[in-house]
Amino acid sequence: MGEMKHDAPKVPKPLRVFMTFESTGWFDTTQEQKEKDILPELFRILEEWKQNGSELLATFDRDILTAGHAGPGNWHACFLYNIPDLQTVTDMTHSFRAAGLDRYFRLEASIGRPFFLLEKQ
């Protein structure tokens, strides 16, 4: 088989972003705090993200076979998005901080690209 030449990866537009979501202080709250304060605020922010030009591609929640703290994976759920630009990614992660949700959850974004053998760009 002939030698394949690979060029340097190109930064995609929109950005392909993998966000990990870890429950941290969540386990130190009461059921009342979760229902009255934390979950409504989390839902509000996730709904706001729908208006920022990003496209949610998929979600993955590990709670089927896990309970409690995240463990070595360091995340409970993840979100896969196409996001228009780096500032929007930064605004999304900052929204947790601005709302005080970083007290209960850790959100981290990684930027990649579609896998070239499965998604042609």
Detailed description of the structure:
This protein has 2 helices and 4 strands; from the N terminus they run E-H-E-E-H-E. It is of the alpha+beta class.
Annotate the secondary structure layout:
Blueprint: E1 15-23, H1 31-49, E2 55-61, E3 77-83, H2 86-98, E4 105-112
Antiparallel strand pairs: 1-3, 1-4, 2-3
Task: Give a brief outline of the structure.
This protein has helices at 31-49, 86-98; strands at residues 15-23, 55-61, 77-83, 105-112. By secondary structure, it is of the alpha+beta class. It has a domain at 21-60 and 91-103.
Strand order of the main beta sheet, please? 2-3-1-4
* CA-based shape: globular
- What is the tally of beta strands? 4
Give the termini distance in whole angstroms. Answer: 25 Å
Tell me the series of helices and strands, N- to C-terminal.
EHEEHE
Rg is 17 Å
Note the beta-strand portion: 25-35%
| Major sheet summary line | 4 strands, antiparallel
